[in-house]
Design a protein that fits this description.
By secondary structure, the protein is an all-beta fold. The protein is built from no helices and 26 strands. The protein has 2 domains: about 200 residues, no CATH class; about 70 residues.
């Protein structure tokens, strides 16, 4: 069946799905099984799980380009290997989409730079990105991430949605359409975070101590940035109602942008610092 370019399949009840595809084939799979399932090979892989699909899911291949997982529970692993089988080191996978996946996920590849994260979950879930390419950037496209699925008011989970990537040196968060709550403190090599999008964004925890610059100037949704680490010395807000607590003791540059913003000073600013509050206010020592 070397001429087959698309495989569509389904598994239900307690039957495990074990799919092996050629590197040139696209795979579309519907899972309603409680068993653990795997997809090996494939190019563009899409898996939709029902509420009863509680088994783990592993997607592994050396030619993967895009992987989409929708709904269901059970931990998810996406592993773009090299042709020789080295884990998370393949150069073909560029994006992974996790839509209402109520489980932790580990996704990896040397070219993986885009994570699309959406949908409410029953508890805080963690997505770990494994990309060993030095100096790479990660973009998170978030829509309704970090929301409690049991809440009638779409309240945030206490821990939000957690995303970590220990090698990425820069992070872009596009908060679009529906409000988001993220914890990106695991981005332990990032020096800059850029925030865009029209939806409100709340950072549940302070970014890593490596982050020096947070640029939300292109964001139109309200940014709730919380208490920032002292390393953040450059801060730009957008046109929404933004709030942040600045802990910098070194010379800092702050431009909160348009909107009724609130900047709280957690420490005395160093001489030569520049603060532009726009229409907002400043609270602090």
């Amino acid at each position: 069946m070397t001429d087959v370019t698309q495989f569509n399949g389904a598994a239900a009840h307690t039957d495990a799905a074990t799919v092996t595809a050629a590197n040139t084939q696209n795979v579309s799979l519907n899972l309603g099984t409680t068993a653990n399932s795997t997809v090996t090979g494939g190019k563009v892989v899409s898996v939709t799980k029902t509420d009863t699909a509680t088994g783990t899911l592993g997607v592994t291949g050396s030619a993967l380009t895009q992987v989409t997982i929708k709904d269901g529970a059970g931990d998810v692993t996406v592993n773009n290997t090299t042709a020789a089988g080295a884990n998370n080191a393949g150069a073909s996978l560029t994006s992974v989409t996790l839509n209402s996946v109520d489980a932790d996920a580990t996704v990896g590849g040397a070219a993986l730079t885009t994570l699309n994260l959406s949908g409410a979950t029953s508890a805080t879930r963690t997505t770990t990105v494994t990309n060993g390419t030095a100096g790479h950037a990660l973009t998170i496209n978030a829509t309704g991430a970090g929301i409690d699925s049991a809440s009638l008011t779409s309240a945030f989970l206490d821990g939000g949605a957690v995303v970590s990537d220990s090698v990425a040196t820069s992070l872009v968060i596009n908060s679009a359409t529906t409000k988001n709550s993220l914890n990106v403190s695991g981005m332990t090599s990032a020096t800059k975070i850029t925030i865009t999008g029209d939806a409100a964004l709340t950072l549940i925890a302070a970014p890593a101590a490596t982050v020096k610059n947070i640029d939300g100037s292109a964001a139109t949704g309200a940014l709730t940035l919380g208490s920032l680490n002292a390393a953040v010395v450059t801060l730009s807000g957008g046109s929404g109602k933004d709030t942040a607590t600045l802990a910098a003791t070194a010379k800092a540059t702050v431009a909160m942008g348009a909107g009724d913003d609130t900047l709280t000073l957690g420490a005395v600013l160093a001489a030569g610092s520049s603060v532009n509050l726009g229409a907002g206010m400043m609270i602090g020592p």
